[in-house]
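--- STAGE predict ---
source: upstream dedup step, 1 unique chain passed
mode: sequence only
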Amino acid sequence: MNFHVLTLFPEMIMQGLSESIIGKAREKGSIRVEAVNIRDYTEDKHKKVDDYPYGGGAGLLMQAQPVCDAHADVLNKIGKEGVRTIYLTPQGKTFNQRMAEELAGEEDLIFLCGHYEGIDERALEEVVTDYVSLGDFVLTGGELPAMVMIDSIARLVPGVLHNDDSAADESFSGYLLEYPQYSRPEMFRGKKVPEVLLSGDHKKIRAWREEAAIERTKQRRPDMYAEYEKLTACRNRLLKKDKLHYIAMSELIHRAQAQLLFWGDEGILLKDRKSDVYMISATDKETGSKILDTVFCCDSEKEKNADTVKLSLNDGDMFVTYESFMNDVLAEHFGYTRIYDCVTYAYTRKEALPVKHTDIRQLDCGALECICENYHQAERSYIKSLLLSGSIFGIYEEGQLAGFMGEHKEGSMGLLEIFPAHRKKGLATALESFMINRTLKKGYIPYCNAFSDNEESIGLQEKLGLYPAKKKIWWLKK
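--- STAGE serialize ---
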């Protein structure tokens, strides 16, 4: 991942991001940081980049010309338009972990650091895509917020942390704060490490950590705990209702990706924070229609009331439905059409599967063209985002890529493709076994959505011991 920082103080950026984990990630090439001196682009012979604001007022304002030219030069070097450009300002949207996760899926990010009384509005209108704040306070410049954001985003990039699973265990990655941690010595100033952590019983340790995280969240962040309680109750209801049929919804909550938009006896509507996929279940057609009307606004409502609190659907947003009548409701309300009929398969055991083929590697964007040529059920931009997040793995024979498989943003296993010359050798079995074990290691339930007419895929799921849901689900888009 590449970070480009437009600043008047490039040494501050480079020195601040040269130590510890981020410094090591830069050294091994997991991330790249470039500090671009805005002053180098001024047309003023005295290297001046600021002037007094029109209309009067205290202080100086950074001029538009050097900012715009510096930004244009970065885009030219990157070789593409539309790179997200973040202006660090107290007037922006407050930065949080969800935003960090979203931005970590980008290949390039540009940060614009203001100084003095800010930057000429015309420059901001021309280059900025996102206005972001660290909080309701004012700093002397945007460099510190930029470094904070880069640190937070970079640690989510594959290969930056020594243990890539550790980012998922920490505060704000889920619905709970992180549990207390202890190291040597066992006794410090009369305080002993909790006995369960010394027991070696991993099941008891996990239970203790979960309970400790719940208690800490309840005490320190009651707002987060209230959301956790609501989502836990929703998941318990789904599991009791039909575990296999609703496994995608249940796992979305378990993996702390779910935004709960509606729930009750009449139905449930979730949104996946990572993929913007909506999942809806309702008791009947009329109820499903009411849920959609409650949560979403149609085009006419947008025009009548710009301040509506309802959500708006974008053209790329997709739905997963759990009852066939909801397909008709979504078609009538928002023009959605069915694209996939799927049978959900889940691996419900705890034991890892044997993987006979050992040359399986995480793929990067260097494999993008190959994947796009061989897999046609997903858009190029989506595949690229999965590669950037480290979610696609390749299987090799004699050093040559023989196939690949990945994990979709909402959590299901998929994108399985073995190249023709390498089929009938058990590579699909080995690759999916690897993905199942990887999911189990993270504490999740492995599952996939097999197309209803894909007999080969269904046969593989049954061979590996995955159980099918009794009812189908449907994927829809506009």
